[in-house]
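We close this part of the discussion by returning to an individual protein. Part of our work consisted of pairing the sequence of a single chain with a tokenised description of its backbone. No coordinates are needed to read the tokens, only the vocabulary itself. The amino acid sequence and the backbone structure tokens for this protein are reproduced below:
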Amino acid sequence: MLAPNRARPNVSAQPCAPNRARPTEIYLLKPEEGGSKMPLAHMFKEHMFSLTWDSAATVMLQGRDFVMPGETVELEFLFNTPQFVRPQQRFTLRHDKTTIACGVFLEALPESEGEIRDKKWRKMQMRGVMERIGFNPFGNRSFERACKPDYTNSPRDNPAEALFKAEAKA
């Protein structure tokens, strides 16, 4: 226990544990608002900034493959390194030099163990996304060769594919 005479101003002495996974609510900025034209896909890795820290985080969408600019959605982020986050803490999400989303953390989750932290599980999730939507939204051709998705049952013409390819060329 911290004695009252030992506490410094502007310091929080409340115990909290770092977590890897956090549920959030985000708003994906439209291009007119300074955001990106490219949708945000399941298992994308983006750079997140909040208060005094920044970290790479993997987007985990529930029940959908991607989110279009202008949409508000609840999703979960999986941090590469554990981060101290409080409910209602705000953050921004950036892709290269562009702010693509802003949001708020909703609640704390217990530390995730097991399959979510496994690299093979992540690879299988990304492969599943590519097979469902019919193209590689992640932009990394070497990853597609290593992952070897089976596109035989995938849709042939996905309108979102043009958005992903146009953003990759820019």
